Protein: Integrin beta
Organism: Bambusicola thoracicus
Amino acid sequence: MCHFKCSNMYKVSCSGSRVRMVCSGGSQASFILKVRPLEKYPVDLYYLVDVSASMHNNIEKLNSVGFALSKKMENISLDFRLGFGSYVDKTVSPYISIHPGRIHNQCSDYNLDCMPPHGYIHVLSLTDNIAEFRNAVNKQKISGNIDTPEGGFDAMLQAAVCQSHIGWRKEAKRLLLVMTDQTSHLALDSKLAGIVIPHDGNCHLKDNVYVKATSMEHPSLGQLSEKLIDNNINVIFAVQGSQFHWYKDLLPLLPGTVARQIESQAANLNDLVVEAY
């Protein structure tokens, strides 16, 4: 809706998202522009999940999320897509155990058979096939590491900049849901492993695996913020446990992000996504 007023001769045209106003030389003009969001706006939601062993119960809950969430999102968007990726940490000491007996299974303390640790794996590109999403999550195995912080910011940057891999659409609202129960490593933490090359901010996926995890540092908060903004990514931190406050304190440094606390086994995950949206 457009309302215009010129003090002299004027010509106004208002069509769709474009407004053109021509006034006579030296005259002044004022206008009121009312804007409202489009109904049923396209939504791309990419789940980036910490698959360390302590997240085992939450990952199992994800199996039932896809269909239920798609039903809830029908009130918001008729064009809703889901994607999925997993992360753990940099695959070098002191972040993981390099003992020959544990290098491929870091979860012996949990009596579980884990997949090898990894920095970030892009599992499923954005799709409207909910059955495909559920199948991908159902096949997901947990992994493990040694230290408490994870490599979440490493994975977030890749999910933001690797647009063709993830399948982010230009016309869609882009939501990156980061699901974890621990803090993330920050830039300079990598020096503990002798990694001193700053992150270059580019996409480094090969066969859907992040291949620079052991050779480049974790991104800084400023660098991560820049890449999220440049790629129009809005982040939802879905955090279980006491580390929720760590992420909440970071929100002023990461524009376009929110933090929500998830209950045991992610029971409130669907409501959390809708509320954050």
